[in-house]
User: Fold this.
Amino acid sequence: MTESLWPWVGFNVFVLAMLALDLGLFHRKEHAVSPKEATLWTLVWVSISLAFCGGIWHQGGRGPALEWLTAYVVEYALSVDNLFVFLMVFGYFRVPPQHQHRVLFWGILGAFVMRAVLIIAGTALVAKFHWLIYVFGAFLVYTALKMLKSGDDEDVDPEAGFIVKMSRRLLPVARQGDGSRFFTTEDGRRKVTPLFIVLMVVEATDLLFAMDSIPAVLGISKDAFIIYTSNVCAILGLRSLFFVVSSLMEKFHLLKVALGVILGFVGVKMLIEGYYKIPIGISLAIIAGCLVVAILASLVFPKPPEVAEAGKQPEPPVREQERS
Assistant:
C-alpha cells in the first residue's frame, strides 16, 4: 500500500507508546487482571484497530481496507490457539495471575521483531518467486487437515519441552523465582529466573504459530505493511483477550474446527488464485461466518462433562525451581 518509510515508523512509535502507557501507567502495580478490566482493554485494542483500518480506507480505498480487515480477523482467529497454549504453560509453571500480564507484555515485544522479519522476508520472496504462493497454499491445506484430524488430543506445542530443557542446560537458572523479575542474583551470580524460562516458551510458541498465520495472511494480501500492521494489532488484543476467555475456553470447543476450515480455505484460495481470484469481500464473509457458526455451535452443542474432564491436562508435580 505504501513505499514510504514514515508510515512504518509512525505505526511502530504509536504501538510502543501505547505499550509503555499500558505497562508504565495502567499496570505499574502488578495485579491479577479481572475479566472486567480485560474486557475493557480488549474493546480498546479492537477500537484502535478498527480506527486504523478506517485510516487505511481513507488513504488507500476500499480494497486495501478490506484486505487489512480480513487479515486482522484471520490473525485474531488463529491467535485463539495461542491462548490454549498460554493456559497450559502458565498452569504448568504455576505462574501467579499477577505475573501473567508481564510475561505476555514482553512476549509481545519479542513477537513484533520476529514477525516483522518473517513478514518482510515472506513478502519479498513471494514477490520475487511467485510460485512460493502455491507452496504456502499446499502447506496451509496440509496444516488444516492435520488440525481437523488431531482435534484436541494432540499437543499443540511439542517444542516446549525442548525449549525448557535447552534453556536449563545453557542458561544459569535460579532455583527459585524472584517475583516478576526475569533476572536475579543467587550465590553471587547473575541468573535467569524460572519466569524467564516461561517467557522463552511463550516466544517459541508464537514463532511456531507464526509459521501458520503468516502464510495465511500472505494469501489475503501481498502488501507487507498491511500484513505487518494487521498482525501487530491482532497480537496487541491477544493479551487482554487471554484474560477474558481463559475461563471460557472449554465452552468454545468447536473453534479449533473453524480454524482448520479457515486455514484450508485460505490454502485453497492461494492454490487457485492463478485461475480464479476469490473477491476479498467474499473471503471475509466466509472467514467471519466460520467463526460465528463455531461459537454458536459450541454453545448449542456443549462438550459432554466427561469428555471435558478427560481432555484436561494432568497436573505435574510442583517443583521448587518452577515456582515463580
